# Entry
Amino acid sequence: MRRFVDCHTHLLLGGRTLTQLDLSKVSSRGEFEAAIAAEHARLPKSAWLEAHGWNEGRWGGERPTRDWLLGAGDRPVVAYRMDQHACVVNDAVRSLLRDAIAPAGGEIVLDDRGERTGLMLEQAAWQLVNPLVPAPSVESKRDSLRAACAHAASLGLEAVCSMEYLADAIEVFDPLRAELPIRIAITLLDRGDDFDPSKAFLVRHDDRLWVNGFKSFADGTLGSRTARMLENYSDDPGNRGMLVERALDGTLSEWARAVIDAGLSPSVHAIGDEALRVTLDAIEPVDPQRTTRFEHAQTIHPDDVPRLRGRLVSMQPLHRAFDREPARTRLGAHRMNRFFPFRALLDHGAILGFGSDWPIVDLDPRKGLEQATRPRGASAGGAAAPAADPAPEWCSLTNDEALAAYGTNAPRFLGAPSSMRAASNAGAAPSARAERSSS
Ligand SMILES: [Zn+2]
# Structure
């Protein structure tokens, strides 16, 4: 079997979805309700019922409400949409929410009478519902990680980069390093004020498991129109999305320098073309060795493509497939040449590393490979054939080019643990890093 590498996963989150009720095959309200009732019967008395994967596109578009969850009685139920950007909760959860109001960037969906339907969108799901769901124990997180790694290995993956929190890296990943069937580079999620790059070395670094860097967010997503664009969204006049975190407060450059000085790789989530430009402006002065990973890079202004020469661009071919139709509306036809310009990036000497972003999309690298190499205009599995794609920048890759992004390029994205150990032993001298040769 061919061996692949995935440059962007969320293993712990993904492993957890493997043990939740999977609604991705459900194609009617009746099946949805039956699945909820069966899971309720199976679970121990005090457990929450957690489900994921529903997609109203499979049954005609009506979104589920609390009425679809009655089969679980008084047990708290939360069921996430396939993209994790929406969930539906039942009355047991609604009562815990009391009269919470929707945070910015979120919506509590109401019916015609002004009653809450149980459907929670974006930040309402993340900020109001998620904190209520009981945190899994360390032991159950370890089970999730074992399941995630077995799943990855079964798909031919030999190594992945996973975005995780420090506490999980120490308590969940580190003790299992010897038994896991894949090699794992952890990129630590940095969302707090107490940033200290030396914490990366609280996790032992060896060839099975190591920390390769830290991740920061420059903006949101295209689907929620929070990715920061140079021009307004075509379907939302006056809105260009938003910069967030360090890209907003101007500390991105300083943060990246600290990460690089520790011998590690900064990773920056940038989906909008302005977010990517702001990130490049911050990174270029502090990263001459080009170890920063530009995550997603879903839209790139043509002027910025040459700036990515020799730089690491971490992209997800299946996101291109799923976001293409929304992108046509959000960006308009005139900007589709900025959307996943694989061909232009390679022609300008960027280094592509592919991944999935599992569990947001399928972990199977073959599906990403198929997407990345699909001829222009060909239809995705089951989806309607798209209109002709407008720009050569957007063109598909050859099989060898796509395989390199899932394999031979990947060590640069995952980082070499031996060189990182050397860097940490040498007092984090950046000159100890092995990867010098990028130009
Ligand atoms: Zn991700």
Observations:
- The chain has 15 helices and 14 strands.
- Residues 8, 10, 163, 357 surround zinc ion (CB under 6 Å).
- The first strand starts at residue 4 and ends at 9.
